[in-house]
UniProtKB/TrEMBL annotation:
<dbReference type="Pfam" id="PF03171">
    <property type="entry name" value="2OG-FeII_Oxy"/>
</dbReference>
<dbReference type="GO" id="GO:1900366">
    <property type="term" value="P:negative regulation of defense response to insect"/>
</dbReference>
<keyword id="KW-0479">Metal-binding</keyword>
<dbReference type="InterPro" id="IPR005123">
    <property type="entry name" value="Oxoglu/Fe-dep_dioxygenase_dom"/>
</dbReference>
<dbReference type="GO" id="GO:0051213">
    <property type="term" value="F:dioxygenase activity"/>
</dbReference>
<keyword id="KW-0223">Dioxygenase</keyword>
<feature type="domain" description="Fe2OG dioxygenase">
    <location>
        <begin position="258"/>
        <end position="351"/>
    </location>
</feature>
<dbReference type="GO" id="GO:0046872">
    <property type="term" value="F:metal ion binding"/>
</dbReference>
<keyword id="KW-1184">Jasmonic acid signaling pathway</keyword>
<dbReference type="GO" id="GO:0120091">
    <property type="term" value="F:jasmonic acid hydrolase"/>
</dbReference>
<keyword id="KW-0611">Plant defense</keyword>
<dbReference type="InterPro" id="IPR026992">
    <property type="entry name" value="DIOX_N"/>
</dbReference>
<protein>
    <recommendedName>
        <fullName>Fe2OG dioxygenase domain-containing protein</fullName>
    </recommendedName>
</protein>
<dbReference type="InterPro" id="IPR050295">
    <property type="entry name" value="Plant_2OG-oxidoreductases"/>
</dbReference>
<comment type="similarity">
    <text>Belongs to the iron/ascorbate-dependent oxidoreductase family.</text>
</comment>
<keyword id="KW-0408">Iron</keyword>
<feature type="region of interest" description="Disordered">
    <location>
        <begin position="1"/>
        <end position="58"/>
    </location>
</feature>
Amino acid sequence: MNHEDEIKNNSEVTIKADTTDKVEMKTKNKNDLKEQEQEVKIDNIGDQDKNKNGLDEKWPEPIVRVQSLAESNLTTFPDSYIKPPSQRPQTTTVNYQPEPDAINIPVVDLDSLFSGNEDDKERVSEACREFGFFQVINHGVKPELMDAAREAWRMFFNLPIEAKEVYSNSPKTYEGYGSRLGVEKGAILDWNDYYFLHFLPLFLKDLNKWPSLPSNIRELMDEYGEELVKLGERLMKVLSSNLGLKEEQLQEAFGGEDVGACMRVNYYPKCPRPELALGLSPHSDPGGITILLPDDQVVGLQVRHGDTWITVNPLPHAFIIISNSIYKSSEHRVIVNSQKERVSLAFFYNPKSDIPIQPMQQLVSSSNPPLYPPMTFDQYRLFIRTQGPRGKSYVESHVSPRYTSENVPFS
């Protein structure tokens, strides 16, 4: 009998709702008959009214905050977070030290690139084709702002649970404090809590939905958002030019000044069984460009490269750029740590929500027709909000049967 089976046989975890705003979590170990109880506040479970997109107003099950689980000294690991054997990480990390010859995603100096360095321009093209990821340094965002933003969110997640529950989210808008993605009942969940907020378009930006503690977080996030929108615009020029298009063409295709911008702050608590769980399941981001500020003290992001998962070694004060639908859209996931928490900020620079997403006419021909049918960004991202992260299954389900990843250069 392996250790996991032994745990399952010797222990039970039961989670039941006893009121509309609390859940009782009881852990019982059959060997020592000790019981552990904890009340964890959850989103109010009411009638499952749906909005116009078909998303429920409430989550299908009581929401248990992962941070509360992590801090409760569990004697067993809940089944709802145990991934199937094929999805579990092969290795776990505590104090990660990359091997001298380990593969890492390319690093691009934006100052050098915008000064006309052709090597950096080619490095971006190769990175997008080979990985769908690269790191940028000398990007124009102040290191002090990056550090302050990350630290403010670390302080938020370490507030008392009652202060955070004020901002609990729902499937309807996704905005606010959350602990799951997808509305499938009985789904295997990821070991993370998060906070999601909007920057653009401006009519979606509601500071009242941003946390008020710590006291400087709204001001910090406002400045951070402005700086990352500027960085997104610069990166769009690079990617557009590298595709052989005019610098402004991709930006115009995204909606010009009417782009979307939002952010998900990820909090990965310590995990007692990191070999069984994932902080974030394999997925490819639905938007245009993701600008990720990782935790440069604790690794966790992994990128699929062929049949291998590469652990990304982040550089201090570098952003990790995920090119998503431009060039190569790569799967990535997050592993968790038994001794260290981890915080990352994923900023999404997206197309205008109602613009049909389709290839530039200059990039298609009779021998290389569009790989996917046109759809709006709203239609596309609805999948991950309802189904949760599921690799590239949604993307691949729309591929024309005449084409496969082997004969299409950018899939």
